[in-house]
Write a structure and sequence with these properties.
Layout: H1 6-30, H2 53-56, H3 60-64, H4 79-98, H5 112-138, H6 143-156, H7 165-190, H8 197-236, H9 250-275
The protein binds zinc ion.
Length: about 280
């Protein structure tokens, strides 16, 4: 561990991210068609032949085959390797950002805190993609990301340096509970559903990952982003009373969360200096 340089770990994180991207490709293809994710194993959608593992490697498989299937020579969309490469970049970015964007690529990564932060960011960055895609299309947030975030946050809190396990639990309960109360109150006042329970679970996960303060900051930034995007959008796309003008809140939370995870503390300090000048 203590001699392996950063650049090597960045390659590992890129590969891990690309594997997650490859898994997303499988989900995106199979879920809407009602095919199980694990069974049948990887097969060609056209000629139904089994695909050997070496062609299933993210990015490499596509390049190896030069974008054509090995079995029936049909073109494979370039969208697949591009999605895998983007997820790979997000994976490498989570470690690189956790080091504070160091320029010393040859140095080993010794600080345990960096590893904890890298895992948290990996979760946030790669989880943002399904939250944005699924919430926009189906108006729901997958439990594997929201509830999974609570579990991931609690597990990562045992790595020294970030939030403690107690802060993680308090963060999940306070952030989820707080947003639930806000939504419940708004629903009573507006007499219509103001907040989905998916958002509550998602924010609870962010609370578990970054504590109460980080979750509150994420909520505030997401709300500001939401208003900035929503106001012009709802003017163009007026709600026809069927909910078509309704905008999901999950993507705004998912975009705000990694930034607040990284820069929430300095941002809060800056804000405090601004409102309480000495
Ligand atoms: Zn085929």
């Amino acid at each position: 561990m203590d001699i392996i340089p950063l650049w090597y770990w960045l390659a590992v994180f890129f590969a891990l991210g690309a594997c997650v991207g490859s898994f997303y490709n499988v989900i995106v293809y199979r879920m809407p068609r009602g095919i199980s994710l694990i069974n049948p194993p990887s097969h060609c959608p056209l000629c139904k032949k089994h695909i050997p593992i070496r062609y299933n490697l993210p990015i490499v498989g596509w390049l190896w085959l030069r974008g054509k299937s090995a079995c029936c020579k049909q073109p494979i969309s370039i969208i697949y390797p591009i999605g895998e490469a983007l997820c790979g970049i997000l994976g490498a970015l989570s470690l690189y950002a956790a080091t504070g964007f160091t320029l010393d690529f040859g140095a080993p990564v010794l600080d345990v805190e960096i590893w904890g932060r890298a895992l948290g960011l990996f979760w946030l960055l790669l989880g943002a993609y399904p939250v944005c895609a699924v919430d926009t299309k189906y108006k729901l947030i997958p439990d594997s990301i929201s509830v999974g975030g609570i579990v991931a946050g609690l597990l990562i809190s045992f790595i020294p340096g970030g939030v403690t396990p107690l802060q993680s639990i308090v963060g999940a309960v306070a952030a989820g509970g707080g947003l639930f109360l806000i939504g419940w109150t708004a629903t009573k006042i507006l007499k219509k559903d103001a907040m989905g329970f998916g958002d509550v679970k998602l924010l609870a996960g962010y609370g578990a990952l970054m504590g109460v303060t980080g979750a509150v900051e994420t909520l505030i930034i997401a709300a500001v982003l939401g208003i900035v995007v929503m106001v012009p959008y709802s003017k163009i796309n007026a709600d026809k009373g069927d909910g078509s003008g309704q905008i999901p809140f999950g993507p705004f939370l998912a975009v705000a969360a990694p930034f607040m995870y990284l820069w929430g503390e300095p941002l809060l300090e800056l804000y405090m200096k601004f409102i309480l000048p000495e």
